[in-house]
Every structure is written in C-alpha cells, then in structure tokens.
Write a structure and sequence with these properties.
Elements (H helix, E strand, L loop, with lengths): L14 H12 L3 H7 L4 H13 L3 H12 L8 H14 L2 H12 L5 E9 L4 E9 L16 H5 L1 H5 L7 H21 L1 H12 L10 H6 L1 H8 L5 E4 L2 E4 L15 H4 L4 H9 L3 H14 L1 H5 L3 H8 L4 H13 L8 H10 L5 H11 L7 H8 L4 H11 L7 H8 L7 H16 L8 H6 L4 H13 L1 H8 L10 H11 L25
Antiparallel strand pairs: 1-2, 3-4
Length: about 500
Amino acid sequence: MARDRKPPPPSANDTNWERVRRLFQSGALEFVEAVRQVVNAPALATFAETWWTDPRIEAKRLLFAYLELPFNSPRHEPLVKRLFKFADTTGDDAIMARFLVGFDRTIRRRRVAKEVYNHKRRAYEQSEAVITPGNTTLARDDRSYAGPWFSQNREQFVAGKFLFSMPTRTYLRRRAWRYFRKLGRQQPDRYIPAVCTALKRYTDADVPDGLALLDNWGLVHILFHHSAMIEAHPSGWRMADGGSLSRLEPEPMFRKLWLRNAEPVFDLLVRSKCRPVAMWAMQMLRRHFPERLAQVTLAELLAWVVAPNTALNELAIELLETRGGLEAVTIAQWLELTEKARTDLLDRICAMVERSVKPEQVSFTDAIKLAMQRPVPLARLGFAFLKGKTPKTPEELTAVFGLRNAEAEPLRVDLVKWACETLSARADFDPLWVLEFLDSRFEEVREVGWEWLQIEPRATRFWCGSGFSNRHTTTSACASWVYSKSKPRNATGWRSSLWSACGSCGRPYC
C-alpha cells in the first residue's frame, strides 16, 4: 500500500548539510552540534571516510568532541559504526578509548520488584530481579524524523535511547574491550597508556550505584577482571555466589603491566573523575607503591583536600593526620581549606588546626570570622581561638557585635555570652551596647541581652537611673519596656521605635 512506502532519503545536497560541511572545513566547534542534528544516514555514511582521512588537527579535535557525547543522535548508525571500524583497523588508541567509554554508557540495567506465584503457598511473593529495560533503541525509520514534531521535541524523543539494538550494543562494547585485550597481549607497552586514557573519561555519573558499575563492561575488565566477587556473562557482569561489592578489591587484567611503574596509577588517582577509579588507584598505591605516596609534598596534600575528587580528599586528610610538619602551614592556608573543603571533613580539619596552630598565631579578626561560620566545627574552632583574646582596636570591637548574628545555632548563645562578658570587662563600657543584642533577629540572642541588662549595673543605671526614673518607678518596669521594644518586626530589627516614645507614659524619650 502507498502509506507503507518509505519516502526517499533526504538529499545530501540540502542547505543544512552544506552548512555542516562548511563548519567542518573551518574546524569550528559548532560543527559537532550541527552534525548531531543531521538525520541523513546515507550522507553521514559517506562523510565518515572524509572525516577519518582528514589529516588536520582540527578534524581529530572535532572527532574527540563528537565521541565524548552520548550515542543518541538519530540515524547516525552508519557514521558511528564506520568510524569505529576505521579506529579498530588502524589501531588508534585514543579514539578506541572514547569508543570503549561511549559503548559502556549505552547499556544500563535496573532492579525491579516482581511478583512470583508460589504454588505451594498459593500466594504471590515479592522478589527482586535485574532486567534490561526495553524501548531504549532509536528508530531507524526515516519517517520518524520527517515531520516538524521531531524537530520541536527532539530532546524528549531521544531521552533514554541510544543507537543500535540491545544485542548490537552488547556486541560493540565487547568488541571495544577486545581491542584493548589484544593490545595487552601483543603490544604490552601500549596497553597501560591506552586504558588510562579511557579510565580518565569515566565520571561519577557513569557509576551512580553498584549495578551501574557492573554495566561498564570495559571498566570492570580493566580494574577487577580477576576478582572472585564478580563473574562475567555474555550479557554483562554479575555478582558471584557469596560475592559483595563492598569486598571488591583491585584485581586488574594484565596485573604485571600495572606493577611495572607507579606513575600511571598515581596519575589516575589525581586526575580521575570517577570515584571507583580513584579508589582503585588509591588501593593499588597503598598495596604496591606505598613509597610513591610518601613522596607527596605538603603543598600537594593541601591542594588535594579541596580537589573535586572525593577519594583524593579523604586520602589527603588521612596523610595529613599521620604526617608531621603541619606547623609550616600558614593561617591563611588553613582558613582557605576550611572555606573550600567538604563539610563532612571539617571536623578532622579543625582538629588538625587545633593541634598545629597556637591561639596567639590567630588574629582576633580571623577568630571572629571562624566563629561566625555556619558549620559547627568551624564555629567551635573560632570560639576556641577567641578565648583569652580581647578586642584592642575599634575594628575588633565592632567585630565583637557581629557575634549576635553567628550562623552556628548550637554555639550562638555561648558566643553571645562571651561577647557580653568581654564587653563588660572594658573600662570604656557603653550602655548603648546592650541594644545591639536586644535588637538581634534571633530570640535567644535577645534573651541573653535581656539577662545582660539585668546583671550589668552600668547598663541598669543608665536605663533606669537619672533622667529615666521620673517615668519608671521600678527597674523591672524599665527593663521590661526596653526588652519589649527591642523585639524586631523583621530580620533587620526596628530600634527606631525604642527612641520614639516611652511605653509607660507615652512621652518621647529622646
């Protein structure tokens, strides 16, 4: 029937395709996104050889950028498969490394709950199963991409889908790993640099959980090929009987090649964007190359603490805790670490600071800055440095009043009480300082200010003594009025009402 007849493929000479070719000749990065929009399979199949044989550096750079993106551009099967065959035939390790990572990303199983009928009990029972989701393959029918609907809803159409059928994707990822396995056997000097190129391209998004880790066929072969915790099946990796991912240890394929030199492993530890890869490198270094970890300088460890690599952060903290020489770290460096480090590491960092830094080395301003921080470990550290210090300059005195807005709620009251005691000990005490705390946006700070007003005689005399007693007969009446008037209506407070009228007589106070 006529409706079943496929329309002719789009012409290779249309305007969009000519624009793509011009972008390719110019080496512009816009070419990558432009070519991904093309759904002309015959034109892309012909272009594959043109792209591969182009000797320009720009062409190789564009190819790298194209392979870094997901394989989910409709009708790009001929382009991807031909580029893969060219790289496999010519032995291009860098391109094959990107294909290995790209094909590993195309298959993701998931766990589902199933109901199985138990004939003996005559009831359904819940069980967990691992399945490969269906409907994850992009259509190869040109009619699916001919209308305006596809252009307007492209992202929705390709979400969760990839090129090639599931069996073909399984074959391609096995074929990509076979290239590196052959490399390790026939040309071992090339194996480690080649697989390291691939390992540096895996990210945390590729391994959100243990099942996703096992779905990375090539990654698991490289790192855990000989592990007794897992088993390789044609459809993918599975847990062995009695196996557990928590007991997974480095058992790489071509182990002897990895043990030749510590530098590739160390480089993976520092540059990896994937936590399992970094953890693997860390365990390899601890087990086989402890002397390489001992060579890491103090400056490198400090940089590791704030690196975007969680495994590197933890290793750096562990090495810093066991090493000496932390006295050489300046206060500015410690403050930078506390500002940029992960919050779950602050307790350990602050403990190191307390052990290695003397309170007299920390300025009053820096101690206040730490005490004002929201993380409790930082505020506690700043509070420890503040004890025994007193403000000596007007700037330091002003900084003390900032403690009324301390962010660490568990320590806020203690910090404010310390500020009140410090201010009361000054010979130039000003009763108006009480208002700074009575006007706070935090209720607990206002309560401390109220207590301070009651126990500080100079403040009590000022507010309830001469010039004010003619309107208030008792100290409690005066203080209650001050306290009630100091409650702010908003986050910034409203002290102006305190000076507008007396709560008892209604007459202006100032």
